[in-house]
Each structure stands twice: as structure tokens, then as C-alpha cells.
Amino acid sequence: KSQGKTSPYLASPTVKYKRNQHPHRQMQLPHWTTARRVVKWGPMIDPLYQKEILRLAGEARGAGRLAGATITLTVKNPLCGDQIRLDVLFNDKKVADLAHETRACVLCQASASLIATLAPGQSEANIRQARDMVAAMLAGDTHELSGWKEYAVFTPVIDHPGRHKCVTLPLDALVKAFDRLRAR
Is the pLDDT reported for residue 35 higher than 80? Predict the structure, then answer.
């Protein structure tokens, strides 16, 4: 233990952890906090992480690298730090196969898992249409997600515009892969 000066903000009494925590450890709380305060997740977080979204993210379909990929690119979301590296194999200007390495939130991971399932066999026009339909759904448009109805699992995200990009990032990455293919 250090014998040096302590901050005036940490001069409050020591508060012990509650049950199911380490009883032998103690922690100092700043003087303006209430001892033994329980922090609960607010209403903003709970609906976003539903079981189906967590299941999709946990399955991580298509996770990893793809040997012999036609296009490899990395796309980042500067708002939250999500990052996806996409390896895409094209055949006759359609997605033949894809793999992803996703360092992102659960929403982006679940979306990437769906992309790995739904994108193979799709043309550029279909992928662009899917991205536009998903973006419209997140903006509150109620039209049908024809061929991409699995994305309806993200309807709780509609009320959180700051998280829309998390869902659309894998789709945006795939559109950029088509752009690079066309530029070749």
C-alpha cells in the first residue's frame, strides 16, 4: 500500500463489495457517490441485445479468412470504432463466397453473420437493394425486406439512430467490394 498523498476525491469511507463479489477486496468511492449504489442497464440497451441478435453474433457464420479471395477490404465505423475485414470471392459478378473478421459490437457481428448466410449467389444490384432496404427499415420505413427478411431481427435498433451504422456496416463493406471489383 502506498503511503503517499491521496486525492481529496477518494477520501470517502471505504465501501465493501456486495455479496457474490470479492469480499476480501475493498474499494474507495468518490465523496459525491452514494455507497452501495446499484447500477442497472437503462431502457436504451436492453431491447437492442435480444436473444436472436445474440445468437446470430455468437454463431459468427463466415467468421475467419477466405483463401483466394478476389477482393479483401477493411471498413471502419468512425462513430463507434466497429471494424470489419471482408474477404469476398466473386464468380460471374456475383458473390461466390465470403468471410469476415469483425472487431465490433454485437449488432455488427450479427449483421456480418447474416451477410455470410444471405450474400452468396447475390448480384451487385441485389446487395445494393438489400442495403437500401435495411437502411430504410432502420429509418422507420415499413416496406417488406424481400429476400432479406432475416434483417427484421434488427427492428429494435430503429429507435437508436446512432446504432444504425452498426447494422449496415457489413452491407456497406460488401457494396464497396463490388465497387472495387468494377474498378479493376
Answer: no
